[in-house]
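Problem 12. The chain below contains 215 residues. Write out its predicted structure in token notation.
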Amino acid sequence: MQLSELLDISQQAVVKHLRVLEETGFVDSEKVPSVKGGPPKKMYTVNQSFSLRLDLGPNLFRAEHRTMPKGGPIRLSSNLPGDLDSVVDNIGTRRRLPLVEAMSMLSDMDKALERIDEQRDAIIALHQQVMQKVAPTIDESSETYEERQLAHAMLNHPRRPLDLDLFSQGLRIQSMDAEVMMDGLRERLLRDFAANTGSLVAAREGTPLPWWLAR
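Solution.
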């Protein structure tokens, strides 16, 4: 199997991961007759463009799947750094590019990606330091392993509400128990919020508040 040779892993491992990717909708497969008269081959095709990001370290675990945006250069330009404007202009609606011009464009994009990656690496390192400094606070204020896991789950995605049902399933606990823990954690957050900002919070109309403030 080509992937087994390229990745230097066993065919069984390749088949296992391909099966998972197919079940989750990332790849399609079809059986193709062998030109040599042997058993048919199973061919896999990636059916979508996506990026997998994984950050690991002490007090650090971030796994993310991101689908690549669709559209042509003009549509993508609003999310691109300004130094790639010339690339967008040069691509335009052209169907073909000379090799030397494509090499120059790809070189510019590689440089832009390297700068963005350096910024992201610095943010992730800073994120890790915040998690390291808050870890003792979580340990001191949590009585059980489940409470610590709940606090970490909230910290991993601080901008969106936590799915308590999914969290409960992951820890194999009752949803009601998770709700009780959430109420207790919310009370501690409210006390910290008031202590750090004052009991009266002033904000302009329409200012988003942390999701955990709402019951």
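Discussion. The chain has a mean pLDDT of 85. Students who got a different answer should revisit the alignment rule from Section 12.3.
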